[in-house]
Amino acid sequence: MAQARECRELAGALTGLKQRSGLSYQELGRRVFTSSSALHRYCSGKAVPRDYGLLVRIATECGACPDELNELLRYWRSATGGARETEPGPTAATTTAPTPAPAPAPGTRPPPRPDHPPRRRPPDRHLVLALLMAIVVLGTAVASTPDTSAPPDVPVPAGATSWSQAPLPVDPALFGVTMNSFSGAMPAFRVGAVRLWDSETRWAQLQPRRGEFDWSTLDRLLGGAERAGLPTLFVFGATPTWAAPKARKAAYGDGSRAAPPDDLDDWDAFVRALVRHAGGRIDAYELWVMGNHEHHYNGSVRTLVDMTRRASRIIREHDRDATVVCPSVTELWTASAHRFLLRFAELGGYQHCDAAGIKLYQHRVTDPPETMLEAVRSVERTFQRAGYHLPLWNTGTTQTLPLNDPLPEDRAADHAVRFYLTGLYARQVRRMYFYAWGNSKIPVVLQAEGQPPAKAGLYVGRLQQWLAHARVRSCGHGVQIDLPENVWQCEFLIPDEHGTARRARVRWTLTGTADVPVGGGAKAVRYLDGRVREVDGQDSERITERPLLVQYG
User: Fold this and answer.
1) What is the pLDDT of residue 143?
2) Using an 8 Å Cβ cutoff, are 471 and 167 in contact?
3) Helix 372-386 to helix 335-346 angle, to the nearest 10 degrees?
4) Residue 207 CB contacts under 8 Å (≥ 6 apart), including other chains
5) What would the mean pLDDT of 64-85 be, rounded to a whole number?
6) How many Å apart are CA 67 and CA 76, to the nearest integer?
């Protein structure tokens, strides 16, 4: 009974702190890097943080004083039956939720019985302050051995809803790359589509003077894509100086302008000349690179809608099979981006397109790729308000990407693979163009031109090999699909060597690790480095931030 009382007292103290702070569960969860659902369980008394470091972070964000921290520690020790105090750290891999508690692994000592807590003297204020100082100063400290005996507390991105459907083919073109090259060389690892931008194919470069065109670079790139059997997305942008001499300069050194041409007849002429010259070799057209970023376009939304209408009409006149993608929208975390989407929709811009272009990327390059799902959900809601339901094409990232430091090789490889899995998870996203191929000065390098593929490129290629001819039927994460909270999964039907469709699951964690049974009927686990492990239904597999494939008979 004493333990139940302490649980209630701990929950009451946490609830009081949270209410006093004025923070929502979601906002508080973001700040302490745990899920809002986990916080709700702690404040309702349905669960107790196993790691006191997490408890201190919650209390500190809510403005707790040392006496309150001391009191929380007393409640926590009694409520957990003397659970160990781990070195606090900022990552979810070091924090775990206590319910339901699995049986102890063979050969390990079971936790103390809750009705016989160890007798310990409560710490004084100096101990609590020292612990708090450690959290603030050593914010990157990590526990020496992650506890995988229970699901870790992880921040579940908004919009990460589990789903299932009748099996649908995985389109190889989902796995796209933007080409930062003008040589005509193509990736040396498997990809499904290419996008032409920062490839010396801007409007100002293809038409340096009115009535004069230079198609040589474009032809090299289209020839390379044709030989590789890859569909091509052409991107419009960078108005020539001669077409808008007084307009603001764009973010390039060629004198191009971040504005519409003074005379839209010049726009019509370029679009018509391009489509005629391509002769069906271009599969899709993105009608402006970043419609809501002043470094790329600072004209009116109404003019951009007019340009979209005119270009769409011309493209459909000459190539009925081409896909028309509306101008892409960036900075989707901001209210201004969604005002732009609504205005473009109100003026009828999306009436002229087959897909909507968006820029999906994390707030920080170090964030999990799955956080992009928050932007997808926001876009879907904005389109619902506007009365549209278009497929989404992710056509790039932010122009400040090169300012970030390179990610470590292993993390870069994990993030590159999960970039595409996040697009698959999002369902409404039909294309994911990774930025970029050929570039060696960005945080995640797939392959620098003239060099062999990096680990990230090789792993992306292997993911596509796994999913060749696959049909996806569900994606989900955590307790929604009876997995630990930090484990994500997409399930497929993949034909075996005899053509028989077999169940397969790609699993990974948002952060940290978790030991998960492979499940009945499991035959093999495949890893991105090419290794294969034979298993049976009794085996377990440690799931990490690097996706793996479980195959079933």
Assistant:
1) 31
2) yes
3) 30
4) 213, 214, 240, 270, 273
5) 72
6) 14
